[in-house]
Each structure stands twice: as structure tokens, then as C-alpha cells.
């Protein structure tokens, strides 16, 4: 079966009402997507948290009469005649198989390869990280992750203590361990991310050098290297927490940053770090530096 996706830009105030309208007009599923770079934190009991700029996505059968549906939506007071929307075809596929078929081994820098666990490694003599992301974020295909991986490949990590703040699938933690780090502490708000990190660590025979924690359980420590590939909002809000993990003279790398947000991140972290020239990859950026000694 083929499908159609109807995307409508909304505010948090109106997103749920628009979602209800889509369901009433035949949408098989409705999802809410962050339309901008804005984190959403744990809701209170009974509370639904949405982003200030939210995209409401309705999934429709391709045989549905979409012109009539859009016309009915346009008659509502909430949307009006000129509401912004986009209609895209979505072919029905085995999406997991499609993704697996298109996830190939990738090289980062001179030594490091990220390899799907179901494929042969192209260079057995390289530093190979075998990865099965599961439900957690992080495969190396996104510029934010690849920027950090290339940075890691250029470091001497032998015996170093590392913190991976927002570890996701564990890809950065595993890369650091395979590049010689003595121990990595992974921290994430998502228990599934911690599980994925541990499973990937076992797959790479480095589980004895990885510890993972939820934020409320995170230990007090100072590491030689701190990595935080999250978003600019949390990087700013949690600046003191992230900085505290990095010992004086230690190295820091930050990503999940849009190129247009670099100046603000640099201005904040320059308080405690001597910053390198930031790296840009398309719309995304990496900020790195060394913590000041005093």
C-alpha cells in the first residue's frame, strides 16, 4: 500500500487540535515533529509537551481524496484558506530492511571505521567499530556525529578517561575506546540509549571499559576528554555540568550545533576553554577546545 504524508506547521498551542482534525479527516496516524532546534524536557504527570514550533504530520492512504480533505481543513477557523502545508508520497516499504541495506561501512579520518554489525569490515587492520544502533540515535551518517568522529580520530587517547554526554547508541564512546581510551562514562536521559550503548560495547569487546548512567545517577568525575553531541539548547543550559566533567587541560568537543548557532556556543564556552577554529559541515558545526588551567 502507498501512503501520503500531510505536513502542517503549527504552534504548540494549536498542534494537538490540528492533529485531532487530521484524525477526524481520515489520517491513519498523526505525529508531532520539532520544526526547529528546541529541546523538550520530561513532562509532568498528565502533561503533553510539544515544541514551540511544531510540525503536525498526518499519514493518509494514497487513495484518499486529499484535495477534498485539504479543502475541509481550510474551512476551519484554526487553519483558514491559506494554511501552510506540504503533501508528500510515502511508498510502503520494509523500512527496517531499507535502512539496513543503505547503512554501509564509513571511514572517519585516517584510522577509524564505523561498520554495521551485519556487514563485513572493509579493512580488518583498521580501528573498526561494529555498530547496531537499535532504537538509539547515532550511526555516523549525520554530520554532527561524523564531525566528532573525525575529531576523535585525530587524538591520542591511549589510557584516557572520557565522558560521552548524551551517548545515544554509544558510537562516540565506542570509537574512543577502540582508539585506546582507558575508560568511558556514557550519560543519557534515555534508558534505551544506555542499553544500546552496552550492547554495542559487548559486540566490540569493550564492555569492561564502559559505564553508563542516567543523569540522576551520573558520578562526579573529571575526564581527559568530554564529548557532547546533543543540541545547542541543552549545550547552553547544561554548560556548567558539561564543563565540570572536563579537567583543567582536558579536551572538549561539542556538536549538534547549527552553523548559525556557533557564535553563541563559542561565546558561552570561551569562558572556560581555549577554543579551536570551529568546523562546519553543511548546516552543522563542531566546537572544540581545551579547558583553561586557571
TrEMBL record:
What's one Pfam family here?
A: PrmA
User: Which reactions are catalysed by this chain?
Assistant: L-lysyl-[protein] + 3 S-adenosyl-L-methionine = N(6),N(6),N(6)-trimethyl-L-lysyl-[protein] + 3 S-adenosyl-L-homocysteine + 3 H(+)
Please name the GO terms of the biological process aspect recorded for this protein, alphabetically. methylation
Sites where the protein binds S-adenosyl-L-methionine: 145, 166, 188, 229
InterPro entries xref list: Ribosomal_L11_MeTrfase_PrmA, Ribosomal_PrmA_MeTrfase, SAM-dependent_MTases_sf
Give the record's GO CC terms: ribosome
Subcellular localization, as worded in the UniProt entry? Cytoplasm
Kindly list the residue ranges recorded as spanning the membrane. Answer: none
What keywords appear on the UniProt entry?
Answer: Cytoplasm, Methyltransferase, Ribonucleoprotein, Ribosomal protein, S-adenosyl-L-methionine, Transferase
What terms describe the molecular function in GO for this protein? methyltransferase activity
Q: Which SUPFAM superfamilies match?
A: S-adenosyl-L-methionine-dependent methyltransferases
Entry EC no(s): 2.1.1.-
Q: What PANTHER family does UniProt report for this protein, alphabetically?
A: ELECTRON TRANSFER FLAVOPROTEIN BETA SUBUNIT LYSINE METHYLTRANSFERASE
* Biological role stated in the UniProt entry: Methylates ribosomal protein L11.
User: What is stated as this protein's family in its record?
Assistant: Belongs to the methyltransferase superfamily. PrmA family.
| Identification of the protein by name | Ribosomal protein L11 methyltransferase
Amino acid at each position: 500500500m502507498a501512503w501520503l504524508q500531510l505536513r502542517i506547521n503549527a504552534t504548540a498551542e494549536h498542534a494537538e487540535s490540528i492533529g485531532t482534525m487530521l484524525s477526524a479527516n481520515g489520517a491513519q496516524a498523526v505525529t508531532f515533529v520539532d520544526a526547529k532546534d528546541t529541546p523538550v524536557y520530561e513532562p509532568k504527570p498528565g502533561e503533553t509537551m510539544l515544541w514551540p514550533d511544531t510540525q503536525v504530520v498526518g499519514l493518509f492512504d494514497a487513495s484518499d481524496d486529499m484535495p477534498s480533505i485539504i479543502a475541509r481543513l481550510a474551512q476551519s477557523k484554526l487553519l483558514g484558506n491559506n494554511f501552510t502545508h506540504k503533501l508528500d508520497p510515502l511508498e510502503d516499504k520494509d523500512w527496517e530492511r531499507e535502512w539496513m541495506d543503505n547503512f554501509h561501512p564509513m571511514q572517519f579520518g585516517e584510522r577509524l571505521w564505523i561498520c554495521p554489525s551485519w556487514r563485513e569490515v572493509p579493512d580488518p587492520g583498521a580501528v573498526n567499530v561494529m555498530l547496531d544502533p537499535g532504537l538509539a540515535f547515532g550511526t555516523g551518517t549525520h554530520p554532527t556525529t561524523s564531525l566528532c568522529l573525525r575529531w576523535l580520530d585525530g587524538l591520542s587517547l591511549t589510557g584516557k578517561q572520557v565522558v560521552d554526554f548524551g551517548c545515544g547508541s554509544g558510537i562516540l564512546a565506542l570509537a574512543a575506546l577502540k582508539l585506546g581510551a582507558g575508560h568511558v562514562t556514557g550519560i543519557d536521559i534515555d534508558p534505551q540509549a544506555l542499553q544500546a550503548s552496552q550492547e554495542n560495547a559487548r559486540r566490540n569487546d569493550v564492555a569492561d571499559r564502559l559505564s553508563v548512567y542516567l543523569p540522576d545517577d551520573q558520578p562526579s568525575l573529571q575526564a581527559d576528554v568530554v564529548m557532547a553531541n546533543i543540541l545547542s539548547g541543552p549545550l547552553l543550559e547544561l554548560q556548567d555540568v558539561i564543563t565540570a566533567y572536563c579537567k583543567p587541560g582536558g579536551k572538549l568537543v561539542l556538536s549538534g550545533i547549527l552553523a548559525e548557532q556557533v557564535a553563541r556556543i563559542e561565546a558561552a564556552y570561551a569562558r572556560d576553554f581555549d577554543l579551536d577554529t570551529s568546523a562546519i559541515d553543511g548546516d552543522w558545526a563542531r566546537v572544540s577546545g581545551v579547558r583553561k588551567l586557571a
